[in-house]
Amino acid sequence: MFIHAAYEKKWNRTILSILWLVTFIAFICHALITELLSDPFSHPFQNHMLKDGTPAYFMAIAMLLLLELVIRKFSSWAHLALIAASHILSCMLVLYLYRDIHVAPVTFVFPLLVTCIFFRPLYLAVSVPVSIAELMWVFWETPPFDIPAVIAIIIVSSIIAGSYLAGFGVIARGKMLVQSLQRSIESEQELLIQNIIMDRMSKMDPLTGLYNHKSFQEYFDKLTSPEQSKAFPFQLAVIDIDNFKRVNDTYGHAVGDIALKQVASSIQEHMEPNDFAARYGGEEFVVLLHEPSVEAAYSKLERIRKQIARTPIDEMNRLPVTVSIGLHAYTGQESKVDCFAKADGALYASKNEGKNRITVL
């Protein structure tokens, strides 16, 4: 909406600038015509302009100044005001300045150009009879109203009507192009969304909603690369569900999947935007934390461990599962393999020491 309003304001400003330019050019042309056609002895240039042209230009300038106020303070009326001003300016140019020039009534095509810019057929439909009425009024005000004048009215009216029909064609064609562009944009957006979905599906574990093994390896590679290792210190935790084979054997694999989802949910609940959690495989998870110290990382993992241990699973007779965790703080000097081996070794230490605990190595 904001962008649309900004474009509307820009076009209103452009049209008003065109009206100022047309008025200025008309003044210059009228001055030149007056100078060339006036008798310098009986009709001095300045007196002729003061009598014939100056009042019209004062009215035109006053109208344009009023338009400046309208488009700045009453923008909802800007369209109608600009179209009305184009009609009034055309009448002034023909009636007060160029009444002796036979092709001057063609000036009534000018409102067509202004109206077409807004791409609204209703505006154009109203402008057609208004322009023809203005044409007849101008001929009526500039006698003689004879057979040649009637022929001129018919010819100019035909030109105006034909021009306005062409304007309808321009608007219709423009709408077709806009619709075609919108369909193209919608198709591109749908393709983009599909690509995003496919990309996400390729990175996510479908059961738990965490990242998958491949995504973890890619991110882990970046964090341990020589370019990033010192810039982004982190802690690696390997989490394993205790006695998971017993869960599957006792309650079935469907209940095992429920346990996996619940553990993943507890992990995800404590993740911050900079953290990274993934299902490594089977009942094993990995978490990359960006805490300021290993103590802060341990505190976060302890909250996760306790939440999992006290959350009953209905399908397991409301018994919870527990997890063992191995934690290692990356030093920036070791390889990716060594880093993971230490975290994994800490996990096995937790298992050997009784499970449902965290070991830091």
UniProtKB/TrEMBL annotation:
Protein name from the UniProt record: GGDEF domain-containing protein
SMART domains: GGDEF
Gene3D superfamilies given in the database record: 3.30.70.270
Pfam families: GGDEF
Domain GGDEF: 232-361
Keyword terms, alphabetized: Membrane, Transmembrane, Transmembrane helix
Residue stretches spanning the membrane: 15-33, 54-71, 77-98, 110-137, 149-172
InterPro entries named in the record: Diguanylate_Cyclase (IPR050469), GGDEF_dom (IPR000160), Nucleotide_cyclase (IPR029787), Rev_trsase/Diguanyl_cyclase (IPR043128)
